[in-house]
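Entry details:
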Amino acid sequence: MDLVAACNAFVYVSEHGSFTQGAAAARIPQPVASRRIAALERHLGARLFDRSTRQAVLTPFGRDMFPSARRLVQLVAAMEESALSARRAPLRVAVPDTCARLDLARLIVEARRHGVYLDPLPAAPEARTDLLRSQEVRAALVAVPPGEATWRVPLGLAGASPPSSGVMYLETLRAGRAAAGQRPRRVWIQPEDDVPHIRDRMTRIRDTSGLRPTQVTVAHSLTTAAAETLDSDDLLLASGSQATELGLYWSRMGETTLTRGLDVATTGGEDPERLRTALRECIARCVGAVAADEAAR
């Protein structure tokens, strides 16, 4: 016997003084209400209603049982309300500040369809780690090497002018190739990619290609780096989706393949698989990641 369902029927019928009206208020058929109350009477060992009248009149035993039954029904209702509120509690997640706001809005909508109420907080890589450490967020998309990543974002070189081919080599930026009196072209690394597995590889390529130290520079912000790129022949290390958003032309790097890797980190009380599975594709769109089969090519 479902004790909660039986008590619910008992309370509604008692309060309305009628099996028909009580069942309607409980949104169950009248025969179902009668069966549940009969089962409750068998379970408790005594009659709850006087069956000799047409009204639903409580017996003395029924009057004694009514307060406890009502408390149980109210407690279950409160528990269900608490569970609903807990499920709808926003999951604050630190995400890359490179994510487009429209993509984040679509991520929020998609998450709701999976019963997850996201509150994304855009932040730079180090800031996302700090937010997670201080427990200001419950989860964060953090930078990791590509081999450990759930989302992989191919990087290339983006510029304001159309490239001569789909592949660009850093060695073509050597200072000796610049026109007289013209400063050498630079490659800007945005804060999102100021991580060892990307920054250090770019530095090594810079050195082996014979570029000056200042020709590969970490920018204070993506906005600054984009402005420098739009106003000169400098290049921005970026994903293809970022290049499109900024109105830049994108090319692959000839010397190496660089990939921005991202994974979910949590405070320990949150299940990261909710983000890695149900929302995997939508998060991929936000960060500009490619599908696994495309990344393998």
About this structure: The radius of gyration is 32 Å. The domain at 3-87 is CATH 1.10.10.10 (Arc Repressor Mutant, subunit A). The chain has two domains: 3-87, 90-297.
